[in-house]
Design a protein that fits this description.
Layout (H helix, E strand, L loop, with lengths): L5 E5 L4 H11 L6 E5 L5 E5 L7 E5 L6 H17 L4 E6 L18 H12 L3 E5 L14 E4 L2 H8 L7 E5 L5 H11 L2 E11 L2 E8 L6 E9 L3 H12 L4 E9 L5 H6 L6 E4 L6 H4 L4 E4 L2 H12 L10
Parallel strand pairs: 1-4, 4-5, 5-6, 6-7, 8-9, 8-11, 11-12, 12-13, 13-14
Antiparallel strand pairs: 2-3, 9-10
Helix pairs in contact: 1-9, 2-3
Length: 314
């Protein structure tokens, strides 16, 4: 049974995605004032009645991550205080996800703290895509739906599927993701073996698996500075690959990422719109963006109507 009227609210991090979701659902965005005061404090004011409604707040916590996270928390608090029946945070890209454990003495577990922020702010449920670590779902004491973009990306690569295609994990940590993707496409699997010669210098040494004369697709959950990804492309060509492409769900693209991708051997980099591209990234002819609006719209509809979300994983 539906939880009141379905309404969509968005912050400033990814309004284009929110509008695309509304197009799929046949609804319009809630009117809201989202901006800043002269001293830099964030101003939030929802411009319509939400009492008893089922609200979905679309906001990626991408760059500037701290601003977008605070904006999301304030929107959640405003909706809670306005007596919304249920508030679902739709966070396509969950910032701080890579800080999911203590990697040094006296270091925080930032992903857990973000989970606490969102929960205290008034979120009743989280909808996200391709968490960096699936275990982050356990940081919440409320329902979490972690969707996967793999079916959308696999649909794009289906024309290349077959024995001539090889899916490559750029490191050992992504093997499970790459194996599942390769199985979808009927492709072979390879792994890049990385050896760290010095701190902050990850060097790809050799390839585990047969990539000779194959179209290799390097798969990761995100592209940040693109160092590991581009290094993987070079090593694959050195090992006989005929062509290299890259794909990742989240185009973080920080620091020198765009320059590295432009100068990389990749013929194409396929990503999604969980994070909007900046003007520099839009000008990169190699980047192809796939929309996850339809996937999120289906999930939102199923959550609203109390239907199964798990059907979207099959």
């Amino acid at each position: 049974m539906a939880q009141g009227d379905l309404k969509i609210l968005t912050g400033t991090s990814n309004p284009g995605l929110a509008e695309a979701i509304c197009d799929h659902l046949g609804c319009t965005l809630l009117p809201a004032k989202v901006g800043t005061f002269s001293d830099g404090e964030i101003r939030i004011e929802v411009g319509a009645n939400v009492r008893g409604s089922d609200i979905f707040v679309v906001q990626s916590t991408s760059y500037p991550v701290n601003y977008n996270l605070m904006e999301l928390c304030l929107m959640l608090d405003a909706l809670k205080r306005a007596s919304a029946r249920r508030v679902t945070a739709v966070v396509p890209y969950y910032g701080y996800a890579r800080q999911d454990r203590k990697v040094a003495p006296r270091a925080p577990i930032s992903a857990k703290l973000v989970a606490d922020f969102l929960t205290v702010a008034g979120m009743n449920r989280l909808l996200t895509i391709d968490l960096h670590a699936g275990q982050i779902q356990g940081f919440f004491n409320l329902p979490v739906d972690n969707l996967f973009a793999a079916p959308i990306m696999a649909e794009y690569f289906k024309d290349f599927s077959g024995p001539g295609l090889c899916v490559v994990s750029p490191d050992a940590g992504g093997v499970e993701r790459a194996r599942s993707f390769a199985k979808r496409l009927g492709a072979t699997l390879a792994i890049i073996d990385k050896r760290r010669d010095a701190p902050n210098q990850a060097q790809a040494m050799h390839v585990i698996g047969d990539v000779k004369d194959k179209l290799c697709v390097v798969l990761d959950d995100m592209i940040d500075t693109a160092g590991t990804m581009c290094q993987a492309g070079v090593v694959l060509l050195e090992n006989g690959a005929r062509e290299v492409m890259a794909t990742a769900t989240h185009p973080v693209l920080s620091g020198p990422a765009i320059e590295r991708l432009e100068n990389s051997p990749f013929t194409q980099i396929v990503t999604t719109n969980t994070i909007p591209l900046n003007d520099k990234a839009k000008a990169c002819s190699k980047i192809k963006v796939l929309s996850i609006a339809g996937l999120l719209a289906k999930a939102i509809h199923n959550i609203h109507t109390e239907s199964s979300v798990s059907v979207l994983f099959t």
